[in-house]
Write a structure and sequence with these properties.
Chain B: One of its GO terms (cellular component) is membrane. Chain B: This is Phosphonate transport system ATP-binding protein. Chain B: It comes from Pseudogracilibacillus auburnensis. Chain B: One of its GO terms (molecular function) is ATP binding. The complex is a heterodimer of chains A (about 260) and B (about 250). Chain A has 2 domains: about 45 residues; about 200 residues, Orthogonal Bundle (MetI-like fold), CATH 1.10.3720. Chain A is about 85% helix and about 0% strand. Chain A contains 12 helices and no strands. With about 250 residues, chain B is an alpha/beta fold. In chain B, helix 7 links the parallel strand 7 and strand 8. Chain B contains 10 helices and 10 strands. The chains are: A mainly alpha (about 260), B alpha/beta (about 250). At the A-B interface, helix 9 and helix 10 of A face helix 2, strand 6 and helix 4 of B.
Chain lengths: ~260, ~250
Amino acid sequence: MSEKKFRQKKWQTTLFFTVIIVVTFISSSITKFNFIHSMTTFPSAFTWIFSNLMITEESFKKLPTILTKLNETIFMAIAASTTAAALSLFLGVMGSKTTKVNNVFSVIARVIASFSRNIPIVAWALILLISFGQNSLTGFLALFIGSVGFLTRAFIESIDEADQSSVEALTATGATYFQIISKAVIPQSLPQIISWTLFMIETNIRSATLVGILTGTGIGYSFDLYYKSMDYNTVALITFTIVITVILIELMSNYIRKVII
Amino acid sequence: MSLLEIKHLNKSYDSKTNVLKDINFEIESGDLVSVIGPSGAGKSTLLRCINRMVNFDDGKIIFDGKDTTHYKKRELRKLRTDIGMVFQHYNLVPRLTVIENVLHGRLGYKSTIQGLLSMFTEVEKENAFSLLDTLGIVEHAYKRCDQLSGGQQQRVGIARALIQNPKLILCDEPIASLDPNASKVIMTYLKQITRDMNITCIVNLHQVDVAREYSDRIIALNKGAVVFDGSHLQLTEERMNHVYGMETRELITV
């Protein structure tokens, strides 16, 4: 690297950080966000949280109903993730550079994926709410569509990364397209495919709570209900059960990953 | 009648350079033929033209009495079941077991559904085990391929080619990634295959001494053209220089 280029690079770094700082100040002044002021509200906010969001014995009695609702949410999240994984696997094979049948299908698969991925899941829930009404199907579909977008993208990358050498070998034995996909491509991408699907289940359990608030189903609905009736003790219990569930699911999927790979 | 006949084969990847220039030869059944030549001479391309993993521009390939030049999907599949292939990097599915990889060699004979559901007959499975036994790796049948050594993996590759019941096996640098001992084992097996099963082998090789020792016939390529074709006895020092060029030869012998 010449000295001139080196100096130029240093200048670029300085300029880059200056621009970021300036942009931060401008945007905080436009949005009237005052950092000092927001920091001073922290103590009172925490006092409120600790005095109100406590799990009491009374709220504990509602645990059985909460758990049924939580089950509903968990199973909906799992069902949405696994069905989405099945469709995404197909789209992934179509969309991947290495396994595509032709460019038309590849582009279609990629468009479907990016369309469903780039609209936030909350927006999907609200859009579907109008056409499907307040029921668990709406929640399922919102999660399903979001998952298809994400998983297709992830599967395309997993398949692209898979070693092509065994594909060549199977082609040379006279195997058909679908045989090659199922015997050479899928077995090699399987660890990533399963890993991404497990990740999707974890994410969907979190998202299902939010989607549930909108669609009036599952644990999200219970959360919304108790929150609006100002029963903060139960809200705390619900939050606690969600946290526990997410941690448990994460531990389980980590274990599954370890076994499979 | 010869098993394989190649007539006036030409191939280029772009308009400027010809990878293969007017290749002509015939190969008899049951021969072990080595193809030698420097890197980039077109050895791999030549091999892949025979089972049409690569399409050639013009010329004719006659395999087992049939002109395969214009074969399309179904006929091509049929052709490939008759031609096994062994690769430098073994090209196995590393996460699957040895026996699964060997049985992949039967996929060409199966319908898509039979293949997807791994519906292999008892006879096929027994064949797979007896091939593994012949190649001395039957005790590894249920191990994942990525747990085997290079030499063992190459033997799995050979078993996969053999279970196709091929008339011809194409070996693309089968020993280039192996140590001398494993190389010797692999070459001995290939020799044994041609002798005992009357299967023809065409082997791309870098090592001239190995080619001399094992093959019935040597074909040398340089810059896409055949520069030598004959038995190892005819491959004199002078002709070797012609194949590899004076300076590189010195480099090899040192």
